[in-house]
Amino acid sequence: MSVGTQNAAAIYGIIGKSGSGKGLCVKGEIIKRWRGAILVWSPIEDSDNYTEVIKGIVCRTIAEVVSAIQHGYKRVVLRAGEAGDMNAQFDRFCRIAWELVGWMVIVEELSQVTKASWAPQSWKKLTTAGRHRGLTIVGVCQRPAQVDKDFFGNCSTLRCYKVGSMRDAKSMADVMFCTPADILALEQFHYIERDVDGNRNRTGVAKLPKR
Asked: How confident is the model over 98-115, as pLDDT tens digits?
């Protein structure tokens, strides 16, 4: 998987049930190859531990995120949902992200803040026009059937690991131009990746960290 730069930004959709390997992709591939600034939406930070992974500062409110960025921090994690309404917080998070030209924006648990037929306009703006501002966007989810379909339609790369239901398999097969059986046949840590711009799929296995 290639990782975008400010001049060649990208949108990644990383999908899979818990323990399937998507965390290895985001943290072991995408973040590892990125040298720039990062903003993370992390609803389960206690287990995801993005703060340590990106060597960043952790925030609990949008006000803290704004303050951190204003004070020059380039790697910022929001422990999402700890203060106030999550949907309102996500809308403000996306509005902030829009102003961060050249940053990578990672959104974990995307199905918590979008629906199959709905997403905040601020998120839609990021996923439809963010690449023009040099934003590299990474959307991560366990339940793709519950996620805003416009997001998948705007991804430059889709990577699907093992999913947990036929509904999710059908949802991913539709956007990856394969069959639900292809998705359901995936073993743990195995994936199908679609290069949307190149109109081709490939298969692979997540790289496990060396001990």
From this structure: 999 999 999 999 999 999
Angle between helices 62-70 and 86-98 (to 10 degrees): 20
Helix/strand/coil (H/E/C) assignment for every residue in the chain: CCCCECCECCEEEEECCCCCCHHHHHHHHHCCCCCCCEEEECCCHHHHCHHHHCCCEEECCHHHHHHHHHCCCCEEEECCCCCCCHHHHHHHHHHHHHCCCCCEEEECCHHHCCECCECCHHHHHHHHHHHHHCCEEEEEECCHHHCCHHHHHHCCEEEECCCCCHHHHHHHHHHHCCCHHHHHCCCCCEEEEEECCCCEEEEEECCCCCC
The CATH class that applies to domain 11-205 reads: alpha beta
Per domain, the residue ranges of the chain are 11-205
pTM reported for the whole predicted model: 0.94
Measure the CA–CA gap between 182 and 98, rounded to whole angstroms.
36
Q: pLDDT tens digits for 188-199? A: 999 999 999 899
